Amino acid sequence: MSKSAWNGHCAVPRGRWRLVALGGIGMLLAACGGSDGSVGVGSGQDPDPVALDFPIAYTKGPLFDAQMQLQVNTDVRDLERFYVGTDLYLLDRASPGVPERNITFTETQGQGDVMGVEFSADGTRMIFSMRGPFDPNLNDDEQPTWKLWEYDIPSGTLRRIIQSDITAEAGHDVSPHYLPDGRIIYASTRQRQSKAILLDEGKPQFEAQEEDRTEDALVLHVIDSDGNNMHQVSFNQSHDYDPTVLNDGRVMFSRWDHAAGVNGIHLYTMNPDGTELELLYGAQSHLTGTNNSEVEFLGAREMLNGDIMAIIRQFDHPELGGDIVAIDARTYVENTQPTASNLGLLGPAQRDVTPNQVRTDLPPSQGGRFSSAFPLWDGTGRVLVTWSICRLIQDPLATPPIVVPCTAANLANPTAVVAPPLYGVWMYDPGTQTQLPVVIGQEGVYISEVVASQPRPSPQVIIDKIPGVDLDLDLAAQNAGIVNIRSVYDIDGMAAVNIPVVANPGSTTAAQRPARFLRVEKAVSIPDDDVRDINDTAFGPNIQLGMREIVGYAAVEPDGSVRMKVPANVALAVTVLDADGRRISTRHNNWLQVHPGDEVRCDGCHSPVSGLSHGRADSFTSVYAGAASTGVPFPNTVATFSPNAGETMAETRTRVSCQTDCAALEPSLDIAYADVWTDPNVRAPDAAFAYQYANLTTTPPTTLACMSAWTSTCRSTIHYQMHIHPLWGVVRQTTDAMGNVLTDHTCAQGGCHAPVDAMNAAAVPAAQLDLTDGLSPDEADHFNAYRELLFADNAQQVVGGALQDTGVTVNPSMSAAGANASNAFFSRFDAGGTHAGYLTPDELKLISEWLDIGAQYYNDPFAAPAN
Fold this sequence. Notes:
Layout: E1 39-40, E2 56-62, E3 87-91, E4 101-102, H1 105-108, E5 113-119, E6 125-131, E7 147-152, E8 157-160, H2 165-168, E9 173-178, E10 184-188, H3 192-200, E11 219-223, E12 231-232, E13 240-245, E14 251-257, E15 264-270, E16 278-281, E17 296-302, E18 308-313, E19 323-327, E20 332-334, E21 337-338, E22 350-352, E23 369-375, E24 383-388, E25 391-393, E26 403-405, H4 408-411, E27 417-418, E28 423-429, E29 434-439, E30 445-452, H5 473-477, E31 480-485, E32 490-491, E33 494-495, H6 499-503, E34 517-523, E35 548-555, E36 562-567, E37 572-577, E38 599-602, H7 649-657, E39 671-673, E40 689-691, H8 704-708, H9 720-724, H10 726-729, E41 733-735, E42 741-744, H11 784-790, E43 793-799, E44 802-810, H12 823-826, H13 841-852
Parallel strand pairs: 31-38
Antiparallel strand pairs: 1-29, 2-3, 2-30, 3-4, 5-6, 6-7, 7-8, 9-10, 10-11, 11-12, 13-14, 14-15, 15-16, 17-18, 18-19, 19-22, 20-21, 23-24, 24-28, 25-26, 25-27, 28-29, 31-36, 32-33, 34-35, 34-37, 39-40, 41-42, 43-44
């Protein structure tokens, strides 16, 4: 589902059921609860009269603006909202009739917005995000930013966490949460460390857009309670938000994964310093809504029993809510996928929290809908919720309209439309299966989140890792870390090959091993139009692939293991390659991150067709045992590398290498292979080879410095017009001793892939492929050759001395799906092919890697023309 921009007006109606404003007129709603206001399925018992003896807080504001247009955005991915008139309210205890206090009005004057509310562990303070006051004389991008605020309950005072006006206005800061050590973790568009990387790359500092390029990406930051020591700890390319702290001290949050082919909000965990980031739950559990509808996982919180409570709802829903589920994320990584230690369990991991029949799809939900849920830790299992009853307007043209509950009869009324939601604060009690009202909903008012100052044990404190103690000091100084893959042949806990056999040089040659190299790619940050306004044509045929750079290659060891240095604090993806340097694995569509000086380990790779998740350490047990014993070389390998028991070949090789210079850890922007393992007493070592940018006669896509020595700032940035297109114009002739041309395999000008012959007369280019210079008649932002290679085109013929389209479609010979999906092109250059030897191996490697990362026209927004 694509995300659409919101302009402050009502959402476009979806099907028959649509939201209609009530225009401020008092409505009549037929009774649909008990006489005490409770709603539930009790057995005639009195509702639980016990109220909370500690404070609760909630946000409340107008659902519609002054023009009666829906001002509340229905899409959960649009986080830079401004619901003007929303304030934070405090009740001293969760009971109907307790007077509410508006604790933010002094700052907002009723023209602000509040979200992301959280109490401190001792219940004396609240932290939240606040925006405003709204200024009608300013444009949207000039309005005040979201800022972190704290309210001290005993003194009744408000303070802004970041005191400097200039610093506070420098970004949007939302969804804060207290860490057990007193610091604050929150989501921000500031992207502090990412901006520093941009400077290292020679680019201006800017806030990168999320992958739909509609607003700046919010990623997690940590700050001291006095507003100092702000730093970024997550490096997603779309939003990371709603952090909360689990009892074991880890941070749990919602991550919008939106790399190519992925579009979902899943639950992740990490340490407060950003280390040990991994999937917690939900990457393959989105089709768990009503009638298998797609849902996202939002507002997650830990329950007393260790389960996770979350709201499941669609990205975009006109009624602003969904259902509540409890998730056994200790036992399951997905709804029907247990962790490795719980194999055999079938699930489901998710269970309904309430007996209400709550729909997550678009039709009206007779059980109402929930917009937030806060599980209590008092042993009762009760949950504070914001809930809206299901209501219909019988006839939207009637004056005044009558609002009725969603009974079967009313739902069958063909003129009925969905009434605006009426969210209030309720206490759900599983013992009596009743919902007791705490704050009664009001027409045209949106109560969107509720929290309680509940007593609970303080979570454990996880100390930040320290360079020289927990982290490698030298790597940290280089702003680099290590990626350690146990075996690329381990696919979701299953061996794709017989690893011991493939790893044994006596049994398998290098040419017989399918995986030969690993490529590490980096996401390219895209600025908003104010920083650099570029057209979509700057991207490739598949704009969802974004722009990517290559940060390095490493050889895959015979057992499928890789251990290599990578840049820290950037969004990374890994790709497995064959001997030609072409991708044989699926695209890695979840961004990795490595903390400076840290080492990220994984067992193997993932097959997207399996329906399983592998992004969590306990998802699978490694299928590869590594070295059988300490001090005994791997079978039929040289004695140079003496392993420790359980080590992979990559771990052994890099450990031995680091006794001197750690050269084996160093990646390269070239692809190079040397057989360092085969015992020459067993057989002759495999031949070495390399594909090098230095051998190109055209401009290489990296610097001379990076071609000679890799650093964490090295990038291979490939642009079609600058690096690929010149290959077609390289003169490829052989001559005799007298200088006479014997063969001419030049591609374009003067060659066979040109629209004219040697006499300059019109001619059909060979294979209907024109590779000459010049802009495309179909897209003026692209060279014609680019379009001919990657887009379907019309065949041509010579009529009356001129080229004319025939109406027959010619399929492209290249594909943005990758080099191995572009066989129509590369097969011609294989041994025995019609073009064998025409392009050099180094040129073919350049074309292969460009196709593998998406065949973009540009891979740097600042290289693309500005509008």
